[in-house]
Amino acid sequence: MATAERLRLENIVKEYPGCRANDGVHLSVQAGEIHALLGENGAGKSTLMKIIYGVIQPDAGSITWNGHPLTLQGPAHARELGIGMVFQHFSLFETLTVAENIALSLPATQARDRSKLDARIREVSEHYGMALDPRRFVNTLSIGERQRVEIVRCLIQDSSLLILDEPTSVLTPQEVQVLFRTLRQLSKEGCSILFISHKLQEVRDLCHRATVLRQGRVTGECNPGEITTDDIARMMVGNETPLSTQVDPSEPGELLLQADNLNYQTRDPFGTSLENISMALRAGEIVGIAGVAGNGQDELLRALSGEVNVSHSSLQLKGISIGDTGPAVRRGLGVAVVPEERLGRGAVPSMSLVDNSLLTASGQGLTSKGWVSLGKVREYASRVVEQFGVRTASIDSAATSLSGGNLQKFIIGREALQQPKLLVASHPTWGVDVGSAVAIHEALVKLRDDGAAVLLISEDLDELFQLCGRMGAICAGKLSPLVPTSELTIEKLGQWMAGDFPATTATPLENNHAVA
Ligand SMILES: Nc1ncnc2c1ncn2[C@@H]1O[C@H](COP(=O)(O)OP(=O)(O)OP(=O)(O)O)[C@@H](O)[C@H]1O
């Protein structure tokens, strides 16, 4: 690894109303170094990355790039200098090809000659072991392939610093291995990498150095390969926060939810139709559904929440057919939902936490005779913030001003405090720090122990194995059997995630070994 200093940040300060997101941050990244940026939710990681990529300007502090002082004018300026960023949420146009998407971020001189650009995409992607066909439409690509487009887009612009914001959260274990091979190769060739992640084992495996942020300040630096994941977690969250959840087995009770040959034909050209989904969920159990993103998880959540309708009797809650009812009816019957998408579906970005509480919790005595009891709504929002450790300037802050992990905690808390009979939660700990993940897991287990059924849709296999009494996988809109977790191995679940599972019977109770 070369040792010249590529990037140096000194005393960076960034203030938002009621919050100092970066409070005198120092960071030094060497050429060819894979440097992790760690910290609990709201620690200021994304703010710092946005400063490095020129999206926002710091209030104070200096940036030195390859030994020269620098004032970034914006992302285009950063790209020109060789700073590339792959965001958590990809910014690709589904209906354009790989090459067309890449051309959009290139200067006109480079974008004009398409055959030259195609050749360059092939050359770069093959060199880094991330095969990509420039002519393919983005909507036909897997999530892992889409991420490759984002990375290749940066590499084509000769990036010498690549910033990756939680890049592995959307990938299968196999895709993670391919990504890591590419990143190691880039590092060997002198490209520096800034890697934000909450997955500490991955940080240990990949990164040369790590800087830890806490409440906007650097609290430590380490060589992650030389210490344990618990040591790293302690640097992030301090000594008081528990690092794992104790999950005792449960005794499932009465039948709560039953899906019987549930079919749903999506109208979204990029969606997945659901085919003959049969399952039964009992009170007092957590049932998991694994799967690679885009295999019908979102459609299943919508069918269960009432955002889309299915045939009347194909879905029953406590024996009542609800397939063609809307979300309000289902909420009234005790169904709560945590969608994967926090902003836009889980919460309205521009609305305060108070107003976002009212949106789904209005049935919790927050209204009376058609009038909103503002005091009660505020009290409810405060309770969510307090009990779920949501870091926010105030309950009047807009949802969009919260860090990703803190907004996730708010949404889970808002739903869990409603004491639902059925909670359907999609990726509940996505982007959440280790301490907060434990708090969320404890909340789900408590709901279970209070007699609710929890359907956990997740790509995090560790989480599924830890929490679920039964589980299975969804692939291409079809659901595998849901079997006791003790009967499953990671390998078998992996096969099921790829669609290689026994056909399910039409009777949901027979499709659930534990309740047969
Ligand atoms: N546009 C904004 N307006 C007001 N406050 C903001 C804004 N952006 C970020 N903040 C606040 O700055 C702090 C740091 O947020 P940031 O997104 O940098 O954290 P993070 O470490 O990336 O967290 P996470 O791991 O949850 O993504 C948080 O308290 C957040 O609420």
TrEMBL record:
Organism superkingdom: Bacteria
Does ATP-binding show up as a keyword for this record?
yes
Q: Gene3D superfamilies, alphabetically?
A: P-loop containing nucleotide triphosphate hydrolases
What does the record give under GO molecular function? ATP binding
For this UniProt record, the keywords arranged alphabetically read as follows:
ATP-binding, Nucleotide-binding
Pfam name, any one: ABC_tran
What region holds the ABC transporter domain? 7-240, 257-501
Q: Known PROSITE patterns for this protein? A: ABC_TRANSPORTER_1, ABC_TRANSPORTER_2
- Asked if Cell inner membrane is a keyword of the record, the answer is no
* PANTHER family named among the record's database cross-references: CARBOHYDRATE TRANSPORT ATP-BINDING PROTEIN MG119-RELATED, GUANOSINE IMPORT ATP-BINDING PROTEIN NUPO
Q: What is this protein called?
A: ABC transporter ATP-binding protein
Which organism does this sequence originate in? Halopseudomonas sabulinigri
What phylogenetic lineage does the species belong to? Bacteria, Pseudomonadati, Pseudomonadota, Gammaproteobacteria, Pseudomonadales
